[in-house]
Amino acid sequence: MGATESTEGEREPLLVPTQTESSIQPVYSRVYGRRWLVLTLFSLCGFMQGMVWNTWGPIQISAKQAFNFSSTDIAVLVLWGPVGFLPWLLFMWLMDKKGLRASLLLSAFFMMLGSAMRSVPVTDLLLRRWLIHGGQLLNGLAGPTIMSAGPLLSTTWFAPDQRATATAVASLVCYLGSACSFLIGPLLVPAPNGTASAVGLVYSGTVSTDTNYIRERIQLVLYSEFGMIAVLFSVVLLYFPSRPPMPPSVAAASQRLSYRSSICRLLSNVRFLMIALAYSVPTGVIAGWSGVLDMILTPANISQVDAGWVGFWSTVGGCVFGVAMARFADSIRGMLKLILVLMLAGACLSATWFTLTCLTRLTHLPSTKATLYTSCILLGVFINSSVPIFFELFIETVYPVPEGITCGVVTFLGNLFTGLLLFFLTFYFTDTSWLNWCLTGSCVFSLILILMFRESYDRLYLDVFVSV
């Protein structure tokens, strides 16, 4: 009965980590400093795509005189942006199969080719009109990748505590580019004699009435945008890797669903469809609503100049506030639904305030420039800043569906609702007050869906618990 010495096998631990478990270690995840360069290049592409898309709206009076454009031409030039989303399935397939570098190179090439077509200085105005329309269409074809690939870039290059911030920067900077067009175009292109530009400058004299001079100034804007895009395309061609040598997180290295399986999973996921509608309805409506903001504010005695500034500050405010809220979401992960509820509640209040103020004859509310400015800018801030938060919630909900495919579906839906709103506007344009009620209703509809939504954080769980 004496004690015997234990054998070598008996001294082995009973619980031995498997090969799969031992291979998932934080040491295999690494973030690279070059991620900020990648984010900067992608953001610059988005900035230029938004600027080119919004070239003609702020200088439409000058463009009509220089190129004999009609109001329909100006509207169609803006409409080429949503039309560029029609082949979105092809761009999502390219992003899924070939990676971010190939899809961004193709988008940057479309932008460069489109801006080059717009810049061809032909004297035949009819041919010039077709070249400008074709250039705007090519720029619109860059939209599916530019507006959908932000979450894919943030997951591929950034750590979990920086993903929401990177998504906000990548997805909102295109809005900033379109907002800057309200300043750059009117500053370089004079308006016809006696008319005011979008920045409040009133031109007079023979120089501003000279059609050739106005055409030369527009040509300068087109050449400048083409030059910047050409340089940007060259830089992306020289250096823009699809992914880092080592993934920044467990989620970035995990296996994803195939393209066909992802589409089927998204279309059969009720929870995803719920938040997809909550995102696409208000963002699509406000995109069309902002495009005709001067028409909406005209009955309230707000000039086109003031309407342009309202649109500018609401967009810039939405970008700044969106990045700030994304950084806040990174610091307290797992609170995306609460942030969206607060944003959409603010959007509902702002939209209701603006709508009732425009109906001052019925509501007897004070309708001043200050109240219209404040309510309209707050409305843009709350809705535009919710975009990156929605994107992060999409990815968490449908993981492991690839990020590019998920965001491609919702951005297509947003552009679809924008197109529907503008389509109905062509029939009911005499009284635009119904647009305000559509915007208010879309915010309330989105808030109800988010309150009913049951959130989950599958990707965050993988990064936090599996990596540990």
Note down, in words, how this protein is organized.
- The chain is an all-alpha fold and 468 residues long.
- The chain has 2 domains: 30-245, MFS general substrate transporter like domains (Growth Hormone, Chain: A, Up-down Bundle); 258-468, Up-down Bundle (Growth Hormone, Chain: A).
- It is 73% helix and 0% strand.
- The chain contains 24 helices and no strands.
- It has helices spanning 19-23, 35-53, 60-67, 71-83, 88-98, 100-119, 125-141, 143-148, 150-157, 163-188, 206-209, 211-238, 250-253, 259-268, 270-291, 293-297, 304-331, 336-358, 360-363, 369-384, 387-398, 403-425, 433-452, 458-466.
- Helix 6 packs antiparallel against helix 7 (125-141) and helix 6 runs antiparallel to helix 12.
- The chain is globular.
- Residues 14-27 and 201-208 have low confidence and may be disordered.
What is this entry, summarized?
This protein has 468 residues and is mainly α. It is built from 24 helices and no strands.
Relevant terms:
468 residues, mainly alpha, 24 helices, Growth Hormone, Chain: A
Question: What's the structural blueprint in terms of helices and strands?
Answer:
Blueprint: H1 19-23, H2 35-53, H3 60-67, H4 71-83, H5 88-98, H6 100-119, H7 125-141, H8 143-148, H9 150-157, H10 163-188, H11 206-209, H12 211-238, H13 250-253, H14 259-268, H15 270-291, H16 293-297, H17 304-331, H18 336-358, H19 360-363, H20 369-384, H21 387-398, H22 403-425, H23 433-452, H24 458-466
